[in-house]
Amino acid sequence: MVCPNPGRKDTASKDEKINVKRPKLEAPDAELMFPLPLFHQTPGPISVSQSYLRRLIVERWEAEVNACEQAKKQQLSEIAPGPNISILQASLQRIISECWDAELKCCEEAKCHEVNLLLILAK
């Protein structure tokens, strides 16, 4: 038999064992030696102070209240302002004001409830 590459040994003609390294399991239920990708792993718990969490809650609801006030102002400005307001325009202004005032009240109540819940959970 002539070897096509003279510098290379023909492994088929020898009875040597070829060792292939594979990940081994220690027990039938053991995990592989390779970790899962990051998106499969659950992160550990995050600890934050109560004052920081309270500040986040308050800032979020204050931003919500501010957005409601801005939306109310914008909707009211879309109705033709002036001394000669029709009954229909006055009714629209009243409805818009009542709607946004109710939304503001809900936001304020939700903020108070979340802050109170945080205080209860902290105990």
Topology:
Layout: H1 50-78, H2 87-122
Helix pairs in contact: 1-2
What brief labels describe this structure?
single chain, 123 residues, mainly alpha, 0% strand
Tell me what the structure shows.
The protein is an all-alpha fold and 123 residues long. The protein has 2 helices and no strands.
Short description:
With 123 residues, the protein is an all-alpha fold.
**Cα distance spanning the termini:** 86 Å
Share in β-strands: under 5%
So how many helices?
Answer: 2
How would you sum up the major sheet? none
DSSP E strands, number = 0
State the share of residues found in helices, binned by percent: 40-55%
Query: Any low-confidence stretches, pLDDT <50, length ≥5?
Result: none
- The secondary-structure element order is HH
- Let me know the average pLDDT: 77
Structural class computed from helices and strand pairing:
mainly alpha
Shape: elongated
* Rg calc: 36 Å
